[in-house]
Task: inverse folding
């Protein structure tokens, strides 16, 4: 039998359940009243949005100017390629050539004309070599100040050879640039000196009397170097592909002086006598006095110091480890300053050159190996 006490307990439980049920219903009604009508819209179906409702967004959409860290809007590339007819002038034409698009700017037409001229000249050169085929390839090298497009042509004839040309221009204006524009000073004399020195050191690898103009050579500039390129067999009969002469920017030293820093003299040939220590030390050398003269040292490292040249005041003999040479005048000492003829920096000091501009400023360049 069910006891009265149990019956009463059951009635209390039922009453509590009903109270809780009513409370939940009240809370649900209040929540529904607080929600906007749009919450009950069908988000899966089509919605009608006014044409001028341009700022219709949802909470999960990022703001219009939002970008992840490191994201950027990529610029459209200004270089593409175009194919050539597969056969021209009796030659099989392989590969493709570069083409600048109008994205670059107004100068793209002139740059493309230069590329076409180079391409036609290479095809004509291949015909002259009686080649069977010519294969084109290219690459782009770009710095903030210069863009270079290298065009290589692999020519298959009696012997296989590679020709290389370049189109160099300012990436901002499209103006064509030469090797003499590669740096803020004219690098051509120093490059000529370096090429001549390399030929002198390895005569077996080069023609006896090559005649090349660096102004005519292909080249490019990257962040570390200026690289001048020569056709295969242009400098040597050795099969070696395209020959390159690299000038690392960090190895180039320069210093300029005015005519007022020269030793005053009444020489009939207006001989320029240059302050040795000032110029040599700015080119990276050390100069020390010796009894009656001066020494020039090259400090390759803290433990590797080499004697490059030495001289005696009043004696027209300039000594190096390999030779003794006379110049237009002997070294001269005035008030503790040693002066030498300006030609000392081309004929005695290694890999050094100088030039004089229209204002009389003398600029010296040196390259350290």
Result:
């Amino acid at each position: 039998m069910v006891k009265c006490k149990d019956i009463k307990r059951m009635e209390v439980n039922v009453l509590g359940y009903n109270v809780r049920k009513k409370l939940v219903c009240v809370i649900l009604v209040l929540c529904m009243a607080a929600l906007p009508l749009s919450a009950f819209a069908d988000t899966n179906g089509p919605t009608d949005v006014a044409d001028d409702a341009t700022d219709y967004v949802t909470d999960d959409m990022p703001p219009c100017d939002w970008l992840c860290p490191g994201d950027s809007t990529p610029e459209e590339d200004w270089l593409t390629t175009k194919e050539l007819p597969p056969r021209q002038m009796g030659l099989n034409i392989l590969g493709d050539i570069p083409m600048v698009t109008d994205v670059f700017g107004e100068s793209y037409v002139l740059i493309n004309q230069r590329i076409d001229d180079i391409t036609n000249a290479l095809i004509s050169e291949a015909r002259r070599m009686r080649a069977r085929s010519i294969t084109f390839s290219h690459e782009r090298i770009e710095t903030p100040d210069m863009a270079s497009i290298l065009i290589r042509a692999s020519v298959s004839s009696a012997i296989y050879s590679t020709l290389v040309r370049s189109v160099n221009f300012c990436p901002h204006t499209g103006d064509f640039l030469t090797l003499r524009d590669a740096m803020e000073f004219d690098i051509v004399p120093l490059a000529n000196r370096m090429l001549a020195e390399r030929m002198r050191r390895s005569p077996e690898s080069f023609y006896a009397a090559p005649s090349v103009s660096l102004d005519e050579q292909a080249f490019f500039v990257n962040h570390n170097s200026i690289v001048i390129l020569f056709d295969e067999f242009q400098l040597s009969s050795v099969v070696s592909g395209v020959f390159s002469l690299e000038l690392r920017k960090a190895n180039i030293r320069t210093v300029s002086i005015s005519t007022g820093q020269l030793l005053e003299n009444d020489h009939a040939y207006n001989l320029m006598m240059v302050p040795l220590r000032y110029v040599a030390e700015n080119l990276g050398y050390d100069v020390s006095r010796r009894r009656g003269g001066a020494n020039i040292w090259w400090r390759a490292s803290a433990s590797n110091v080499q004697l490059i040249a030495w001289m005696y005041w009043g004696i027209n003999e300039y000594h190096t480890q390999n030779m003794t040479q006379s110049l237009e005048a002997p070294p001269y000492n005035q008030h503790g300053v040693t002066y030498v003829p300006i030609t000392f920096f081309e004929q005695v000091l290694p890999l050094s050159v100088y030039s004089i501009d229209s204002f009389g400023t003398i600029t010296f360049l040196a390259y350290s190996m």
The two ends are 114 Å apart (CA to CA). The chain is about 20% helix and 30% strand. The chain has a mean pLDDT of 83. The helical segments are 4-34, 108-128, 188-201, 276-282, 344-347.
